[in-house]
Design a protein that fits this description.
The chain is mostly beta strands. It contains 1 helix and 4 strands. A hairpin with a 4-residue loop joins strand 2 and strand 3. It starts with 8 loop residues before the first helix and ends in an 8-residue tail after the last strand. The mean pLDDT is 86.
Length: 76
């Protein structure tokens, strides 16, 4: 892979080897999104996955927003 940038390598790859929180797929209000769990019922939105362009305009589902969700444990 070739990476061209005027930014020094040390800055670009600063946290490259740091362990990342797991990213999981969840469905909230019928919308599929990728989130990073923060606690048992809270997560930070990483990415919204929707074929509807109107959903991307909703600030409640913007990346970085916090959501309440109930993880699926196999039994409800």
């Amino acid at each position: 892979m070739i990476f061209y940038s005027c930014v020094p390598e040390e800055v670009v790859f600063e946290n490259w080897d740091m362990p990342q929180e797991p990213i999981i797929d969840v469905t909230v209000n019928g919308l599929l999104m990728q989130v990073q769990p923060v606690s048992a019922h809270q997560a930070r939105i990483v990415r919204l996955i929707s074929p509807d362009p109107q959903q991307y305009l909703n600030p409640a589902y913007a990346p970085g927003q916090w959501i309440e969700y109930r993880p699926y444990t196999g039994t409800y």
